[in-house]
UniProtKB/TrEMBL annotation:
The keyword Amino-acid biosynthesis does not apply. GO terms for molecular function: rRNA binding; structural constituent of ribosome. Part of the 50S ribosomal subunit. Belongs to the universal ribosomal protein uL4 family. GO terms for cellular component: ribonucleoprotein complex; ribosome. One of the primary rRNA binding proteins, this protein initially binds near the 5'-end of the 23S rRNA. It is important during the early stages of 50S assembly. It makes multiple contacts with different domains of the 23S rRNA in the assembled 50S subunit and ribosome. Forms part of the polypeptide exit tunnel. It holds the Pfam family Ribosomal_L4. This is Large ribosomal subunit protein uL4. It comes from Hallella colorans. Residues 50-59 have a biased composition (Basic and acidic residues). Keywords: Ribonucleoprotein, Ribosomal protein, RNA-binding, rRNA-binding. One of its GO terms (biological process) is translation. Gene3D superfamilies: 3.40.1370.10.
Length: 209
């Protein structure tokens, strides 16, 4: 699949790049996409929810009433879960929600997500660019020139670029990532991928090992 290379003014440079069919042209596998997105979202969970059980509540351990004959449930001390202010039964405890996936599954998921974007013609390749200083206005102008303003846009760069990152930081629907950090969730969550030309080579090296 060939894609025209644009500059940041939205004009064609006269060059074209061929997207690797082994990455952008495969038959997408929906199940591995589901697994990888599930893994990513699970990894975002803090897992710090915690409630106090009976033994962790502070309070007297004096038995409040008789074992039998009171007409109600046995309740023991004031920390009983039966009473207001008592411990909670089977409450949440700190846990790790992370899910392990094999490397090949994660690679296939990213390839599938990129193939979906290629099928939707939602990939724009731009000439490598830099900004002289971090200015949100400059990034907005680039988005207008590329006709992606107002869309969820994922800008993929070959390496960290502080000026581009800071320029896009305050724009709600724009996100900047390096090619070696993109994941299935971020790819699918974006309406359009704006990829610097050099980032394609990095993606090829990572996903075609």
């Amino acid at each position: 699949m060939e894609v025209s290379v644009l500059n940041i003014n939205g004009q064609e440079t006269g060059r074209k790049v061929t997207l690797n069919e082994a990455i952008f042209g495969i038959e997408p596998n929906d199940h591995v996409i589901y697994l990888d997105v599930k893994r990513y979202l699970a990894g975002q969970r803090q897992g710090t929810a915690k409630t106090k059980e009976r033994s962790e509540r502070s309070g007297s351990t004096r038995k409040l009433g008789r074992q039998k004959g009171g007409g109600g449930a046995r309740r023991g001390d004031i920390n009983s879960p039966v009473l207001v202010g008592g411990g909670r039964v089977f409450g949440p405890q700190p846990r790790d929600y992370s899910i392990k996936l094999n490397k090949k599954v994660k690679v296939l998921a990213r390839k599938s997500a990129l193939s979906y974007k290629a099928q939707e013609n939602a990939i724009i390749v731009v000439d490598d660019f830099d900004l002289a200083s971090p200015k949100t206005k400059d990034f907005i102008n680039i988005a207008k020139n590329l006709k992606v303003e107002g869309k969820k846009t994922l800008v993929v760069l070959p390496e960290v670029n502080k000026n581009v990152y800071l320029s896009a930081r305050n724009i709600q629907k724009a996100e900047v990532m390096t090619a070696n950090a993109i994941n299935t969730y971020k790819i699918l969550n974006a309406d359009v991928l704006v990829m610097a030309e050099s980032s394609l080579k990095t993606i090829d090296n990572i996903l075609n090992k």
